[in-house]
Design goal:
The structure holds 2 protein chains of 2 kinds. Chain A is an alpha+beta fold. Chain A has helices spanning 25-30, 55-58, 66-73, and strands at residues 3-8, 14-19, 50-53, 82-84, 98-101. In chain A, a hairpin with a 5-residue loop joins β1 (3-8) and β2. Chain A is globular and about 35 Å long. Chain A starts with a strand and ends with a strand. Chain B is of the alpha/beta class. Chain B is built from 12 helices and 26 strands. Classes of the chains: A alpha+beta, B alpha/beta.
């Protein structure tokens, strides 16, 4: 069964996106024509899949590993709720996840 | 668009650049007919994992696809796969395919990429007809290679560049016995400093790779049936038995079709900063282009995903009538064992090498300076500093080598020096 994501694009447009609860959040966002570029393809090497997760969802996601934290630390548009979407494996419990695409660096 | 030609943009090449060009063109507002033509049967996919996760069998082909088929349907992007473009008829504005069919184009995007450089020794042609001698460029190549990844099998890798070394690391992880042969005195010789080469040579040897440099391959042995390579011969009478062979000796840009069409070609399809070729109706992007680099102050050809993506966006902007110049700083990455190598800038021509951190601890950044100016950084397991290093390199400035080497000085303070308070008006 697919899950539904609420995605705010870089122009403030709101979208409801259906995604399979498998693979990474980045892979779901990469499908969108307003999505993330994800240049390194999920290797946690480039930080081009940067998103802001709605605060109420932060605690429900797996914690950041050190690689992700290191990459995020130096981003110009980093916020408290910044995540790299390639590091979040989508699961059924993520149905309803709300997020905003961060500006491209 | 010329009134005489039906409006139809074709993109030749369905790799990373081709896929990005198509979607980017839609994002830029082009709504007319748009078709991507590719020689392989696959949707545009990521190549970097081919020598890493995909080779190790950690992911499947469809997860390499940049986007799934539904995304092309939704964006109304046509796909002509398993189809090769035989020639471009620029006068008639037509693409002619290998099956003789021809289609008219209004604008063309060339994203033809490159192909693996083949060995030139006389045994190579025969070896290419066997089942255990491989180059590595596409999914099918890797399917064939990884089916041989069994513990105890003997792999000979010819070429100590990034592809060869990544293959070696992936194979070792599967218990394969690996020999790497590099003709030059050190691995990664074309792209990095002797200190980095030495570091990677040690890492591979410690992992169990029989790594040999300064060794030239002269011939191959075959089994009686002639359908398998059994050994690799090197200069000096060295013979290395092999159950399979992978050759990674570089890439050749696919420029023949462009050249035959009379486009300017010089180690790549020559484009300007807007990704336009010598024909104003034809743009090009990715590994196949020779483009001006503002950062380097010269023309370069890059083999890199970030370049493919960024230049494809520039090409799309040009086609959409919203030109913007390409001015990205090159960057690259390579994953081997537990080492995350990230590189920014181009180190060719450096005159000073500055090390920050410890090679022994496998955590360091190497700075390349030319007449004081920082031109490139290689970072190993230093992701946070790499993000800062990208800014330092992009600044095209001189930095104090002592400060770069001094771990007690956060790199960030060099990137964002405290500004003197501006006088209030």
């Amino acid at each position: 069964m697919s899950i539904r994501l609420s995605v705010v694009d870089r122009n403030g447009g709101e979208h409801e996106v259906d995604a399979a609860p498998e693979g990474s959040l980045m892979e779901a966002l990469r499908e969108l024509d307003y999505g993330v570029s994800a240049i390194c393809g999920g290797m946690c090497s480039c930080a081009t899949c940067h998103v802001y997760v709605a605060p109420e969802w932060l605690a429900k996601l797996p914690e950041r590993q050190s690689d992700e934290g290191d990459l995020l630390a130096e981003l110009q548009f980093r916020q408290e709720n910044s995540r790299l979407s390639c590091q979040i494996q989508l699961q059924q419990e993520h149905d309803g996840l709300r997020l905003t695409l961060a500006p491209e660096e | 668009m010329s009134a005489a030609t039906e409006d139809h943009v074709y993109i030749v090449g369905a790799g990373h650049a081709g896929g990005e060009l198509a979607f980017s063109l839609r994002q830029q507002g082009y709504e007319g007919p748009l078709t991507v033509v590719g020689e392989e049967s696959h949707l545009p996919y990521q190549r970097p994992p081919l020598s890493k996760a995909y080779l190790k069998g950690e992911c499947e082909a469809t997860s390499l696809y940049l986007r799934q088929l539904a995304a092309y349907e939704k964006a109304n992007i046509g796909l002509l796969l398993s189809r090769r473009v035989e020639r471009i008829d620029r006068a008639g504005k037509q693409l002619v395919f290998d099956d003789g069919r021809a289609v008219g184009y209004s604008k063309l995007g060339l994203a033809t990429g490159g192909r693996a450089r083949r060995m030139t020794i006389s045994d190579a042609a025969r070896a290419e007809r066997t089942g255990n001698f491989h180059y590595l460029r596409n999914i099918d190549d890797v399917m064939a290679i990884r089916s041989r990844f069994e513990a105890g099998q003997r792999l000979v890798v010819i070429g100590g560049g990034y592809i060869g070394l990544e293959v070696a690391a992936s194979a070792i992880a599967r218990g394969v016995k690996v020999t790497v042969l590099e003709a030059l005195p050190r691995v990664l010789a074309r792209v990095t400093a002797p200190q980095m080469s030495e570091f990677y040579e040690k890492v591979h040897r410690d992992a169990g790779v029989d790594l040999r440099t300064n060794i030239e391959v002269t011939g191959l042995d075959f089994n009686a049936a002639g359908d398998a390579v059994t050994a690799v011969h090197c200069i000096g009478g060295v013979v290395i038995p092999a159950d399979f062979v992978v050759v990674g000796i570089g890439l050749l840009p696919n420029t023949e079709v462009a050249q035959a069409a009379g486009l300017e070609v010089d180690n790549g399809i020559v484009v300007n900063e807007y990704a336009v070729t010598s024909d104003p109706d034809i743009v090009a992007a990715g590994d196949c282009t020779n483009h001006p680099s503002v950062f380097c102050g010269r023309r370069i050809r890059l083999e890199s995903v970030p370049n493919a993506v960024e230049q494809a966006r520039v090409a799309a902007a040009t086609l959409a009538g919203k030109p913007r110049a390409y001015e990205s700083v090159p960057w690259f990455w390579s994953d081997q064992y537990d080492l995350k190598l990230q590189m920014t800038g181009l180190s060719q021509g450096y005159d000073q090498f500055v090390l920050r951190g410890s090679m022994q601890n496998k955590s360091f950044a190497a700075f390349y300076l030319k007449q004081g100016r920082l031109i490139a950084v290689d970072a190993v397991n230093r992701m946070q500093e790499f993000m800062v290093a990208k800014r330092l390199v992009a600044a095209c400035k001189s930095f104090d080598p002592a400060a770069l080497a001094d771990e007690s000085v956060p790199l960030k303070t060099l990137a964002d020096p405290v500004q003197a308070a501006a006088p209030q008006a």
